[in-house]
């Protein structure tokens, strides 16, 4: 299968406590293996860049590490710590996590996602994490289940 939809939510963190990092690892790893669904960037803007910036990780270095080492998730976290002098800035991580949780898509993006997935737009689902989850689940269903 060469069109894998990344099913780890941006609302998930690993042992380091960094939201979206497991999803970024998954997308980048799938991209390095040539198996990422074409609708998803391996390492794009938005949350991907927010995480790298908050951790002080250069995007090119991150992509090269993923491509060259094909790390497990724990190996990625170990590499990140090595790039950060052995510890993460707790304030930067807390600020990043709050930004990820608090990010609200624009009305047109929200409407587009909800229309695509068949959920009425009652103004109740506004946060990007849940909207993105709905979009991922729909993409997974269309790609894998419905064919």
Account of the 3D structure:
By secondary structure, the chain is mainly α. The chain folds into two domains: 103 residues, no CATH class; 44 residues, no CATH class. The chain has seven helices and no strands. Helix 2 packs antiparallel against helix 5 and helix 6 runs parallel beside helix 7. The protein is globular and about 45 Å long.
The structural domain count equals: 2
Proportion of helical residues: 55-70%
Radius of gyration: 16 Å
Structural class: mainly alpha
Main sheet makeup: none
Number of strands: 0
Order of helices and strands: HHHHHHH
How large a portion of the residues is in β-strands, by DSSP E? Answer: under 5%
Shape: globular
The averaged pLDDT comes out at 96
pLDDT < 50 stretches:
none
Instruction: Enumerate how many helices there are, as a single number.
Output: 7
Distance between the termini: 12 Å
From the structure above, extract its key features:
147 residues, mainly alpha, 0% strand
What's the topology here?
Layout: H1 21-32, H2 47-55, H3 59-69, H4 73-83, H5 90-102, H6 107-117, H7 128-145
Helix pairs in contact: 2-5, 6-7
Précis, in short:
The protein is mainly α and 147 residues long. 58% of the residues lie in helices and 0% in strands. It has 2 domains: 103 residues, no CATH class; 44 residues, no CATH class.
């Amino acid at each position: 299968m060469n069109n894998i939809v990344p099913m780890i939510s941006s609302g998930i963190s690993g042992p380091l406590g960094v939201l979206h990092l497991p999803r970024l690892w998954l997308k980048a790893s799938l991209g390095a293996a040539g198996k990422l669904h074409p609708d998803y960037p391996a390492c794009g803007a938005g949350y991907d860049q927010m995480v790298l910036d908050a951790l002080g990780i250069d995007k090119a270095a991150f992509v090269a590490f993923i491509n060259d080492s094909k790390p497990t998730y724990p190996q990625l976290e170990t590499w990140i710590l090595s790039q950060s002098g052995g510890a993460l800035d707790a304030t930067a991580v807390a600020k990043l996590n709050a930004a990820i949780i608090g990010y609200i898509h624009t009305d047109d993006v929200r409407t587009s996602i909800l229309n695509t997935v068949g959920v009425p737009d009652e103004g109740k689902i506004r946060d990007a994490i849940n909207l993105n989850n709905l979009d991922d689940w729909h993409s997974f269903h269309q790609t894998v289940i419905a064919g």
